[in-house]
Amino acid sequence: MKAFILDGYKKNGALRFGDVPEPMLRDDEVLIEIHAAGVNRLDTKIRDGEFKLILPYRPPVILGHDLAGVVTKIGRRVRGVKLGDEVYARPRDGQVGTYAEYIAVNEDDLAPKPKNLSMEEAASIPLVGLTAWQVLVEKANLQRGQKVLIHAGSGGVGTFAIQLAKHLGATVATTTGTSNVELVKSLGADVVIDYKKDDFEKVLSDYDVVLNSLGPDTLEKSLAVLKPGGKLISISGPPDIEFARQQGLNFILRQVLRLMSLSIRRKAKARRVSYSFLFMCANSKQLKQITLLVESGIIRPVMDRIFPFEETNEALNRVETGRARGKVVVKLR
Questions:
Q1: What pLDDT, on the 0 to 100 scale, is given for residue 241?
Q2: What is the CATH number of the domain that holds 188?
Q3: Enoyl reductase (ER) domain: which residues (predicted)?
Q4: Which residues, including other chains, have CB under 8 Å from residue 235's CB and lie 6 or more apart?
Q5: What is the DSSP string of 5-69?
Q6: Measured distance CA(155)–CA(324) in Å, rounded
Q7: Is 164 in the same domain as 253?
Q8: What is the DSSP letter of 303?
Q9: Same-domain status, 108 and 195
Q10: Helix (H/G/I), strand (E/B), else coil: 121
Q11: Core vs surface per residue 283-306: b (16+ CB within 10 A) or e
């Protein structure tokens, strides 16, 4: 089968388009014919080697963390999926590889594709949807009437998180550029900070939660908008010791991550707020709940561009610019 392969870590390096064997199927897995794959900043970070110490990938490896497709084979212990089912998923860590014609995915990572979405729209959702869910619902326990700041509101995670936070009953502020102000307002943002004109930390105050997806300067400035007891949750780092424990990292790597997050944790403590890092994980139960929200019209996917499969490297470059409005997707079939 055809696939895009990472042969070695290299900043801005291109993935190799080549032939690889069709995946072998374990008893608890299904083989999926991929129709579309979402493109994420996580893929460019892995390609560049940013996570080589903490993620279980060793080149050569196929990248890609989102998929929508059709079940073509079933492992002998699989019970909840049948041949021909249209599904979508974010495969679990260590078993990713959606920039390919086929992939073997654990049954527990799958959910039925939303009936009202195309394959391309469905493929845009799993990683960003699960990220937003795990930040806002699981880690933040966001409640009706609370206030949340979602950075980069026009990006993949931001467009989804704004809609989810509004569904949860929160007041939503977001940061974005001038050209995307109307987009984020249409998604439900109550307060929009044009970062080209205003400093969010000087405008906002007394927030309960901040979802950060940007760099260290924005991360530190976000502390100023939180009320005592507030929560700063970052999906862009630095990783903390809790993440190290979850990943089962060795003692030395745990200490490295502890030191990497020491400064922001100390500054958060001084302001009587908490800091935590979230690296989302596959979860079919949560994805099925997201499906219900999509099928009911509460959340809609925001699409930037759809690239043909052969232009996967161009799609990665588009994501890396930081200018994508919503999600970038590659179409295989």
A1: 84
A2: 3.40.50.720
A3: 13-330
A4: 131, 135, 157, 211, 212, 213, 277, 278, 279, 280
A5: EE-S--TTPPPEEEE-PPPP--TTEEEEEEEEEEE-HHHHHHHTTTTTTTS---SSEE----EEE
A6: 6
A7: yes
A8: E
A9: no
A10: helix
A11: bbebbeebbebbeeeebbbbbbbb
Domain count, the chain: 2
Tokens read off for 128? 């960003």
207-212 vs 226-234, strand pairing mode: parallel
What single-letter amino acid sits at 159? Answer: T
Identify whether 253 is part of a domain: yes
| Same domain, yes or no: 117 and 131 | no
Query: Pick from 203, 162, 207: which is nearest to 185 by CA?
Result: 162
List the beta bridge partners of residue 148: 172, 209
Measured CA to CA, the distance from residue 201 to residue 204 in angstroms comes to: 6
What is the tens place of the pLDDT at every residue in 141-152?
999 999 999 999
Domain boundary among the residues 277, 293, 322 is at 277
Rounded Cα distance, 290 and 125, in Å:
9
Q: Directed axis angle between helix 251-260 and helix 262-270, to 10°?
A: 50
**pLDDT at position 228:** 98
Residue-wise pLDDT for 18-40, tens only, equals 999 999 999 999 999 999 999 99
Tokens of 233: 């949750």
287 occurs within a structural domain? no
Q: Which of the residues in the chain have pLDDT under 70?
A: none
One domain for residues 94 and 106: yes
* Residue 44 lies inside a defined structural domain of this protein: yes
- Cα–Cα nearest to 64, from 1, 133, 6, 122: 6
Structural domain span for residue 119: 2-125+301-331
Distance between CA 46 and CA 245 in Å, rounded? 20
pLDDT at 273: 98
Please give the pLDDT value at position 171.
98
